[in-house]
Amino acid sequence: MRTLQVTQESWPIRGSFTISRGVKREALVLVAQISDGAHRGRGECVPYGRYGETAASVLAQLDALKPQIEAGMTRAQLQQACPAGAARNALDCALWDLEAKQANTPVWKLAGLTAPRPCVTAYTLSLDTPDAMAAAAADAAAYPVLKLKLGATAMIETLTAVHRASPRAKLIIDANEAWDMAQLQAISPQLAALNVALIEQPLPAGSDDGLARFNSPVPLCADESCHEADSLPHLQGKYGLINIKLDKTGGLTGALRLARAAKDGGFGIMIGCMVSTSLAMAPAMLLAGLADFVDLDGPLLLARDREDGLRSETGGILHPPGAALWG
Q: Measuring CA to CA, how many Å separate 73 from each of 79, 287, 304?
């Protein structure tokens, strides 16, 4: 007989995490634990207000699915019973973890993937003044890839200051939908000289048709504009890459489906995350081998992480999860 237990947890962020939409000082996560009596599978999700989610709404979804999960619902059935989002992510990853433990076989083998290897993650700098972000970049100089949260003002000043503080770092800009087309056109010619390798979601989702007529000197990556595989036809000709996050795809199952469709469609891939613990990063790390950019620094931004969390080294090197954590 299966049981489903859901817990809500708060993990303090080291300092604060600021993007164009606001500031947060804690990572609020939900953890689904599915047990068959002998084995336990876990999955972690982050309810995200940008997509209309709250902790209460996701808890209600999980509660509604509890009878079916406890009656033996499979991952395939879950895809049909629950829309993509945080709730499905927690359950999908918990079911993968449970299946791996029942079969005594790692998830990467069950999913037909290659064995995960250590990878380099980008490290995120929160939105702040140019001087403050330059100081943060200097502190993070050991990271070869820095991701900058930018707003709609002082973009070039901030990029210039960060580049001076960490001149060898490859930079990713994440505007979180804060720009308009005129701003993108105005600053784009200056970006390559500042070692910018990627611009993530510069325009609001649903207002990015102008990108189809824009020859960007720096590759563009869709985040808020891309959720599942059915998003891809709308992104052709606008973006060269997509950001895959398990909280958007509704778990590892949906992420694998999106990654394979993206490869078939000629898109590059970034593997991304919300600010959350190593339990949320572990399934996402299985996709790192398919990615052009890895952005799984969520646990690195926390004041503390879970026991048995992902091991990291200087330079942003993340090691695959151990069985005690997940998978």
A: 10, 25, 34
112 domain-assigned: no
Considering only CA atoms, which of 77, 67, 55 is closest in space to residue 8?
55
Same-domain status, 281 and 184: yes
pLDDT in tens, 152-200: 999 999 999 999 999 999 999 999 999 999 999 999 999 999 999 999 9
Tokens of 248: 């958007």
Count: domains in the chain? 2
Report the distance separating Cα 258 and Cα 250, nearest Å: 11
- End residue of a domain, out of 104, 134, 160: 104
How many Å apart are CA 203 and CA 20, to the nearest integer?
12
Question: Residue 20: its pLDDT value, please?
Answer: 81
**How far apart are the C-alpha atoms of 72 and 36, rounded to whole Å?**
10
User: Do residues 276 and 11 make contact, with C-beta atoms less than 8 angstroms apart?
Assistant: yes
CB 10 within 8 A of CB 28: yes
Count CB atoms within 10 A of the CB of residue 120. 18
CB-CB contact of 165 with 141 (8 Å): yes
Q: Are strands 119-120 and 40-45 parallel, antiparallel or unpaired?
A: unpaired
Amino acid of residue 135: A
What is the Cα–Cα distance from 213 to 209, expressed in whole angstroms?
8
Cβ neighbours around 212 below 10 Å, total: 11
Catalytic residues: 149, 245
pTM: 0.96
Q: Who's near 106: CB < 8 A, 6+ residues apart? A: 100, 115, 323, 327
In a domain, 275, yes or no: yes
| Alpha carbon distance 30, 4 (integer Å) | 13
Question: Which parts of the chain register pLDDT below 50?
Answer: none
Q: How far, in whole angstroms, is CA 48 from its chain's centroid?
A: 12
